[in-house]
Write the structure tokens for this entry.
Amino acid sequence: MGKYRMKAEKTVKSLVLGILMSCLCACGTAQSAEPDRIQLGAAYYNQNDTFLSQLDECLKEEISRLEKDGFEVTVTTRDAAGSQRTQDDQVKELIEAGCNVLCVNLADRTDPSEIIDAAREHNVPIIFFNREPVAEDMMQWEKLYYVGADAKLSGILQGELAADAIHADSRIDRNKDGIIQYVVLEGEPGHQDAIIRTESAVDTLKKKGIRLEKLSCGIANWNRSQAQNRMMQAIGQHQNQIELVLANNDDMALGAIDAYEKLNYTESALPVFFGIDGTDAGLQAVADGKLAATVYNDKEGQARAMAALAAALVSGEGMEEIEFVNGRYIYLPYYKADKHYAETGK
Ligand code: GAL
């Protein structure tokens, strides 16, 4: 083969390679110039709920962070104000408006079928959060996920915080009978976090050697003013006997404190109060010494998990990096939030 022919062949080869390469690069550019578009529809059972309104802020922040990863994002939020019917309609509207992933905080956690049907019909995956659907409903379709927290752990941590406080301060047992008289303020009936939190907090206290006497248990639906009313009733019935208040969330613990403030109780006659959530107001009350302690419900972690899952579902990439329980559940842990935590964030 002549020298020139070899050279010519080489040139042709490198030309072809060059064309191929530039074609490949161009294709690459064309793809990344069209970022994945996340159109997220977020449906809340009730945006007046303190914890959820703070979780919503975190979710918006996490979703907008995805822009840095090359996603184009929009979030549309709807508030069902407690009605499943309203939420069913809102979710259908979100789907009609082009949402390609849904985050649903069910109004009625036992009634997601209409939403699941509508989503399946349009092939829009759903990330349920905070209000866990029952297991059979999660089996209705393979594109259903859940992000939440381990309810049992929150009760255990609340029980441990209360047991430690009681062991450390004998003044909590004000009547010195060796038994702690307590009141429970419970969240919505039927909510996975309500029953489990109460049971595991009480069990933990008992396991830690605290003798308990339940004076009353009032349902206050996560709500501060309802808790204030329930607590006023309990105080009316039991006056100075109440030594401990276990509330399923911070807002209800704060409502209980409101009741005592309204009745002008002196500090030495107050019970100790424990909450769950670590909302801004809850942590402030812990820092102020009004709430003995709370348990941090990791809204930042939940929002991060929801955003990562939404991105993976829309782009079809990164699912393998997400750690699921039972294939489709993500549970974030809770943390103890005592005075030191409330003051320092550590
Ligand atoms: C719980 C939270 C409550 C309330 C409830 C609503 O996890 O502790 O404060 O937000 O969810 O479903």
About this structure: Residues 1-34 have pLDDT under 50 and may be disordered. The CA atoms of residues 138 and 238 lie 44 Å apart.
